[in-house]
Structures are given as structure tokens and as C-alpha cells.
Amino acid sequence: MSRARHEPLAHLALAAAGETTGPDAGVTLQAAPYQPAVILRGESGNAAFLEAFRAGMGFDLPLAANHVNSHAGATALWLGPSEWLVQSTTGQAEHGRLAAALTGHRHAIIDHGDGQQIIRVSGPRARDVLSKLCPLDLEGPDLAPGRCARSILARCSILLHPLPGGGYHIHVGRSFADYVWRLLADAGLEFGVAIGGAG
After folding, report:
1. CA gap 86, 77 in Å, rounded
2. Is residue 2 part of a domain?
3. Residue 73 counted as domain residue
4. Which one, of 66, 82, 62, 83, lies nearest residue 74 by Cα?
């Protein structure tokens, strides 16, 4: 019998908190819902491997450093010259199609989704909150939507992904999710913090 997934931030009762946005809140924190994710490794210079990915997922892998490509609920984030984080909002079936498409091509697919939590930070002061904790230049073109970057947030390793509609996704290991959440909430106190519903 399979057990329900334990959400890393469930003890904060975010679902019960619901949407508490007030007119003075400069930043909103939200525990993003679970997304199946895998680490994909392969040869970025191998045209057959790239074509197989396109056939399985319906879009191209990002080949430029720190770029992101998305299509129909799936996202691939560049982590290195031969490594990507591939996540899907439509479930594990999409990753099954990817594995089938890559059969016969040199690659590795490593399940990763349950090892991470995504925290969404949004609102007019989201950048100010992150600037207190993260050394990246958040105003530069290297962190525009369509990009991503590995960095640290108060000594904790993260993957930062600016979102097209504003705000950021912070990918963090599940064992550090509570620590990062509390740091963000504390850093946002001067601007007013709202809690978004969990999902």
C-alpha cells in the first residue's frame, strides 16, 4: 500500500492558512505543489540525443548556459553542459515517454522530484527580499525570465528560476525547505509578508 507523499512544509499548515494577501503585503510566499522531476544527463553535442529529447517532450533542450525552455506544462532547466533538470506538471507519464524516446541513446535519467521543494516568492518587493540573502545580481539580464542560476541563499544551495509573470521559483532540497522558508519570511517582515495557499 503506497503512502501519501509527505510535503516538506506541511507542518506550517499552509493549506489551512489559505490566501492571506493584504493590501500592504510587499511579498507573497507560497509552497509550490509537488512536481515530478528528473535530472537528465546526456551529450549536448549529440544531435541524435537532442532529437530524441524533442521527440519525447515536444520541445528542445536549452543548450546555452543557465537557460530554460518550457512547453505544455514541462520545463527543462540547464544545470551544466550535459545536465538538465526536467520537471512536469502533468505527471510521471511524461518522463516515461522521455525514457522511451531516449532508448538506444547514451543518457542517464535520475528521479529527483521528491528530493526538492519549490518555494515561490512573488510581489513587488520579492527582489528586495532575495537580495538580502542571495549574492546574485537579480537586476541583470542573466536573471531575466527564461534563465536560471545555481547559487546560495544564506549558505543553502538553491536553484533560482525567475518566472515570466513575475516572481521567482526557489528550488531547494527538502531537508532545507523549512530553513529557507523561515529566512524568507524573516527577510520580508519590513515589507509585509503574505502566505499563498499550498497549491
Report:
1. 6
2. no
3. yes
4. 62
Query: Quick one: 62 exposed, middle or buried, by C-beta within 10 A (0-12, 13-18, 19+)?
Result: buried
At residue 130's C-alpha, the angle toward residues 9 and 119, to 5°, is 25
Kindly list the distances between the CA atom of residue 100 and the CA atoms of 37, 46, 56, 87, 116, in Å, as whole numbers in the listed order.
16, 17, 8, 16, 25
Query: HSE on the CB side for 175, CA within 13 Å?
Result: 1
State the CATH number of the domain containing residue 119.
3.30.1360.120
Query: How many structural domains comprise the chain?
Result: 2
Residue range(s) defining the domain that contains residue 96: 37-113
* Predicted pLDDT at 19: 47
Rounded to whole angstroms, how far apart are CA atoms 86 and 108? 12
Residue 4 lies in a domain: no
Whether 2 has a pLDDT exceeding 60, the answer reads no
Number of residues that make up the chain: 199
Shared domain check, 154 and 103: no
Bridge partners for 194 per DSSP: 28
The CB density around residue 14, as the number of other CB atoms within 10 Å, is 20
Cβ(160)–Cβ(109) below 8 Å: no
Tell me the average pLDDT across 39-57. 96
Q: Give pTM, 2 decimals.
A: 0.88
CA distance 145 to 161: 8
